[in-house]
Amino acid sequence: MQENEIAALVEPVARLLADRCAEADVRRIMASETGHDADLWRALAGLGVTGLTVDEAAGGLGLGAVELERVLEVAGAALLPAPLLSGAVAAAALAGTGEPLLAALAAGERVAAVAFAGALDWSGGDVRVAGARATGTARFVPDAAVADAILLVTGDGVFLSEPARVVPLPVFDRTRRLADVAFDAPARQVADAAAAARARDVALVALAGEQAGAAQRLLEMTVDYARERHQFGRAIGSFQAVKHMAADLLLESESATSAARDAARQVDEGAPGGEAAVALAAFACADAFVRVAADSIQMHGGIAFTWEHPAHLYLRRARSGAQLYGDSDWWRERYLSALEEQA
Amino acid sequence: MQENEIAALVEPVARLLADRCAEADVRRIMASETGHDADLWRALAGLGVTGLTVDEAAGGLGLGAVELERVLEVAGAALLPAPLLSGAVAAAALAGTGEPLLAALAAGERVAAVAFAGALDWSGGDVRVAGARATGTARFVPDAAVADAILLVTGDGVFLSEPARVVPLPVFDRTRRLADVAFDAPARQVADAAAAARARDVALVALAGEQAGAAQRLLEMTVDYARERHQFGRAIGSFQAVKHMAADLLLESESATSAARDAARQVDEGAPGGEAAVALAAFACADAFVRVAADSIQMHGGIAFTWEHPAHLYLRRARSGAQLYGDSDWWRERYLSALEEQA
Amino acid sequence: MTDEQLTAEVEAWLAAHWTGAEPHHESFGRDPRSVWLAEVRDAGWAVPRWPAAWHGRDLSDAQGRLVEAAFARAGAPGAGQDRTNLWANTALAHATGEFRRTIVAQLLAGEVGMCLLYSEPGAGSDLAAVRTRADKVEGGWRVTGQKVWTSGAAVADYGMLIARTDWDVPKHRGISFFFLPMKQDGVTVRPLHQITGEAHFNEVFIDGAFVPEDHLLGPLNGGWSVLQTALAYERSVMGDRARGPRSGAGGAKGDLALLALAREAGRLDEPVVRQQVAQAIAWRALNALNTRRAKAELAQGSSSAIMSLGKLAMSRILHEEARVRTMLLRAGSLLEGPEHPRAEDANFLALNAYFTSIGGGTDQIQRNIIGERVLGLPKEPEVDRTVPFREVKAG
Amino acid sequence: MTDEQLTAEVEAWLAAHWTGAEPHHESFGRDPRSVWLAEVRDAGWAVPRWPAAWHGRDLSDAQGRLVEAAFARAGAPGAGQDRTNLWANTALAHATGEFRRTIVAQLLAGEVGMCLLYSEPGAGSDLAAVRTRADKVEGGWRVTGQKVWTSGAAVADYGMLIARTDWDVPKHRGISFFFLPMKQDGVTVRPLHQITGEAHFNEVFIDGAFVPEDHLLGPLNGGWSVLQTALAYERSVMGDRARGPRSGAGGAKGDLALLALAREAGRLDEPVVRQQVAQAIAWRALNALNTRRAKAELAQGSSSAIMSLGKLAMSRILHEEARVRTMLLRAGSLLEGPEHPRAEDANFLALNAYFTSIGGGTDQIQRNIIGERVLGLPKEPEVDRTVPFREVKAG
């Protein structure tokens, strides 16, 4: 898509979220038992967002990682508590399979979660798929407790299996619910290893986009506050201590945005440098968001040390996202390995 | 020694260096072929500084690491280009041996250098002492080219051997000359492994003291400049960007000073936590001095980008000292190992 | 009196009065702790360095420490409040008349609860910008405004309050310092939830509350300098107030907690982990060495520049330790709650580190203080220093 | 004219005139490069977007790029100076009369050498604080003062000079902009040795040097805005001016140099090393991605905030790369000189990184610019903005 088409795609989503996913909504959904708002989800489905990356044949928009990433920048900015990322990854995992789940995902009628396992596991689970049977537990699976279907994505391919048990976890970032998912049932392979790898890349790019978007928004909020808040007879943003932090954070958040968008492009193009680009986005966006969130609290001062101020919601999201799909040290290591292979 | 006695010891040294080791003197000695000023050395000997840690029986002052560290703070502050550290380490290595070299060191009549080798080698040399014979090359040995005697300090003890070849090296920090020293001759053991270990500790504490003292002095110079230099109608030190860097550097330089002095005390006391304290001083002082030197240039601006300004002399000293006796990563690793053994 | 005689006297008094616990049995209707503290006060041990007319014994600082040491050996509380009791020191220095006599005695016996009413939503780093107003009425002042970051407001009898009493002079010159009676209509206390979810602090809404004439401390419009004295006490203890892990399950205590945690996580053999754990431990160790050196320098009578660095150092230590804990736990840090104490600790510490880096003056303000007061760098131009407060942009 | 026609015309002209090198054979007594540049100028290709009356062809920006592209394909220099020639653009915009006509033509042909006379020992970050004075005399001005950080002063014919022409107005309003003839008594050029030991710059001592009346650019006392235009050119290229290793022995080029160096040092299997090498490479890669995105945004007509970040990013990259190189070499970095190219590189880069973090506005000034111009944060109070320059503290 051209930049103007992307803008036209993103704009109604941003408007919907401004209206239906304001801070008060986020707090309400956070405080709810499931962390999921079915009405909001239907409204997103109404814009086609739930089917963004679902094949057109299954009623989706059939778009790529580039468009997904841009939509998730907006979702991240609003701290959207909804299974959007999981659904997009599921759609990538099932692309071209004609699975009936795809149409239900596009329509927003069903919710999918994705458990990475085997060679694609970052979180210490022990799921094995062997002899058409899945056993073991996948850890920290986003949205699993509200999902109608849980895909198992391993180094060998994509599988569907009925989970034996889904145990919701008490999470630090209550805008993204996680669960441990135990398997002990037949597993049906629905896509190959290439689809699984692509699903992994889409997950990372989507998360990176969320982080970049959240960092941008939080920095804007912080800069606005620094313009308006006066101490010592001056806007605090006129003090170099605050101004220079803001400048440094702009570099972080713009770099994150560049990295996430470039990785999305490379995933769509299947470019040879793709693995490095995805790894770079994974750690650069995670680190940038953590730093922006941390420094934003410092720049606000006391007001951001309160529960009522939204800054800590961003910090929680930032800290959690930085551990969800492998940590930054892990991805820096992968980045260097990918560069070595290129060199 | 009590604090007031130490002050009385240090004060004449500081006065001598202010007089005879001003920036112009440092530059003159830097530019000389040997990097050594025999007159200045004699003047130091006149104050007893060359015999600071030499046994009283051999005509020295018989002082410990605590006093040595404080004198080297002053030497480091002045970037003293003289084989003072080497001589003090040699004295520690030979303590109690009655070697005739000790008296010559105390009197300033001879200059000693120390090559760490074997288990105490940090710099990639390959010296071996076996069958009362030393072979191989010790790398980056300070002051070797002007030394009358070169001690070999290994994990097994302290040895004297006539070097086969001393090759002066082109060095980045011309206030501390280094040479590669090749051995291929009989080696006579003059002290045991405990003396060798103590010499190693004294070397590290002495270097840490130099670094702490240099960091203090450079920070003072930088703060003075920030008070006097005006841009935009204000002293640059009134800008938070400069002021806050200065505050952070004060934390660095004071921490370095505390670490160096504590390590010196523990070396003298032979305390059980001594190894950790020495390791801590090694990396904390090296890192602090590098940071103070680097940021001081930035705080000065263009003037410190000139050869004529002394800031880069400190940066050269800082960078070199940080590699001379093992780098900071190495010492952090040793620090943690020492803590593990204590725990 | 020689040091030995003094110590003997204190020990004799303690032997006669201190039973190893506060006197529960003889204190019907009164707080047993207050009963004990009143005894200590009346014996002159509460404030041994103060004048005899003010419950003291006119002792030197060094002798005062002997008194404290004897109490500490016995495990008895209450001695040395001349060094530690913010409230009593402030009242002695600045209150007047009968109120001074009453309140000082009560404060030394812990008979009244206190809180601080300084910060406002619009006056955090810049305390001189307070907008809470105290308007003169018959017999005293009527106070209206809002205060935040108050601890203990719900149980306090008095709040040490700064309020504006003159709006037509520059901001530092129109502030007065009061003891505001808290238990009256017009004072409403609400819990203030922190970033961690806890509520250690309050917001205090003041709507026409009354302060009697004699509850003014220091001169009218001279409150700024009273506040400076009071803040000096606070700063000197700030470095010690940083809290440890919430779970209490930290394994090894103190400096080596990270080492223990890394071992427990099975990651102590990873070089990248070892470097980070070592550096974090080192920062804490260096701060301890700085503190020890500062105390030694102070003991020798030279003032120490190092003392002012502790809060800034602690801020870096706490943020970095939280980061290293998180790194060690990896995905394990996604959790919280009592069943996941390691994650709870890492996340709590990451959030609570701002208590130190923001509370009691942000790191940025602290760097200003170090730069200006310790290093002698010039202040920034102060745009509001000479402007009537009415015209200052604030909030 | 269509794009195709234009390209065809340029290519035809090049085919007829460009022999693959500048015309040595026919240029006795003249600089062969100038001979060629004069031909390009006279054909209208030097400044295709400028008006025909000024050596141009009135082309659009896009068409101008076609001209540049055709020259680039042929390997011929001299086209597109309307985009790149600082001196000519400044002269065209601000010079007047006959001098304008002469100097623009000479500058486009590279017939005169130029240098910048902006910075002074007392006016670095704060260029408006210049104290070099230009005093009115018959037929022009007499200039006295000292300039620093000048490149090419020894061979320059003119220096673009800012000097103070009114001392009784605020500092920005008393500065004028001149083309100072360098080859005269009263102008002394001395090499200025940098921290690296090299001397790429000069100090220029000016003692009563004469500037003719018509060498004033822009209005008298209106030099500050002329300077701003000129500085804008410079900033846009600053990010590209950072220099690489001195030895040229860096192994792999560009982004992966550190990877190659780590392998060469036998340390690529150390996890601690790998993390640091990866992060340093990542910063360079992220800056490249930012630059690419900024260019794409500019091409779409939206202004880009990212462009202003490049210099700050490059400063971090260069300092960090030097640090990683040093870490890789360990004690090997103690050396210097041609026999130790790796050490030479690491040390040179560590020193030369300040060229980027200080030169052309320090990182601190750059953060001000980003904070104020990009993020819209308010400026600091400017104490000297309205004060007669005589009364300003400077230097």
From TrEMBL, chains A, B:
<dbReference type="InterPro" id="IPR037069">
    <property type="entry name" value="AcylCoA_DH/ox_N_sf"/>
</dbReference>
<feature type="domain" description="Acyl-CoA dehydrogenase/oxidase C-terminal">
    <location>
        <begin position="205"/>
        <end position="330"/>
    </location>
</feature>
<comment type="similarity">
    <text>Belongs to the acyl-CoA dehydrogenase family.</text>
</comment>
<dbReference type="InterPro" id="IPR036250">
    <property type="entry name" value="AcylCo_DH-like_C"/>
</dbReference>
<dbReference type="InterPro" id="IPR013786">
    <property type="entry name" value="AcylCoA_DH/ox_N"/>
</dbReference>
<feature type="domain" description="Acyl-CoA dehydrogenase/oxidase N-terminal">
    <location>
        <begin position="7"/>
        <end position="90"/>
    </location>
</feature>
<dbReference type="InterPro" id="IPR009100">
    <property type="entry name" value="AcylCoA_DH/oxidase_NM_dom_sf"/>
</dbReference>
<dbReference type="InterPro" id="IPR009075">
    <property type="entry name" value="AcylCo_DH/oxidase_C"/>
</dbReference>
<keyword id="KW-0560">Oxidoreductase</keyword>
<dbReference type="Pfam" id="PF02771">
    <property type="entry name" value="Acyl-CoA_dh_N"/>
</dbReference>
<dbReference type="Pfam" id="PF00441">
    <property type="entry name" value="Acyl-CoA_dh_1"/>
</dbReference>
<keyword id="KW-0274">FAD</keyword>
<protein>
    <submittedName>
        <fullName>Acyl-CoA/acyl-ACP dehydrogenase</fullName>
    </submittedName>
</protein>
<keyword id="KW-0285">Flavoprotein</keyword>
From TrEMBL, chains C, D:
<comment type="similarity">
    <text>Belongs to the acyl-CoA dehydrogenase family.</text>
</comment>
<dbReference type="InterPro" id="IPR009100">
    <property type="entry name" value="AcylCoA_DH/oxidase_NM_dom_sf"/>
</dbReference>
<dbReference type="InterPro" id="IPR006091">
    <property type="entry name" value="Acyl-CoA_Oxase/DH_mid-dom"/>
</dbReference>
<dbReference type="Pfam" id="PF02770">
    <property type="entry name" value="Acyl-CoA_dh_M"/>
</dbReference>
<dbReference type="InterPro" id="IPR037069">
    <property type="entry name" value="AcylCoA_DH/ox_N_sf"/>
</dbReference>
<keyword id="KW-0560">Oxidoreductase</keyword>
<dbReference type="Pfam" id="PF00441">
    <property type="entry name" value="Acyl-CoA_dh_1"/>
</dbReference>
<protein>
    <submittedName>
        <fullName>Acyl-CoA dehydrogenase</fullName>
    </submittedName>
</protein>
<keyword id="KW-0285">Flavoprotein</keyword>
<dbReference type="InterPro" id="IPR009075">
    <property type="entry name" value="AcylCo_DH/oxidase_C"/>
</dbReference>
<dbReference type="InterPro" id="IPR036250">
    <property type="entry name" value="AcylCo_DH-like_C"/>
</dbReference>
<keyword id="KW-0274">FAD</keyword>
<feature type="domain" description="Acyl-CoA oxidase/dehydrogenase middle">
    <location>
        <begin position="115"/>
        <end position="198"/>
    </location>
</feature>
<feature type="domain" description="Acyl-CoA dehydrogenase/oxidase C-terminal">
    <location>
        <begin position="221"/>
        <end position="375"/>
    </location>
</feature>
<dbReference type="InterPro" id="IPR046373">
    <property type="entry name" value="Acyl-CoA_Oxase/DH_mid-dom_sf"/>
</dbReference>
<dbReference type="InterPro" id="IPR052161">
    <property type="entry name" value="Mycobact_Acyl-CoA_DH"/>
</dbReference>
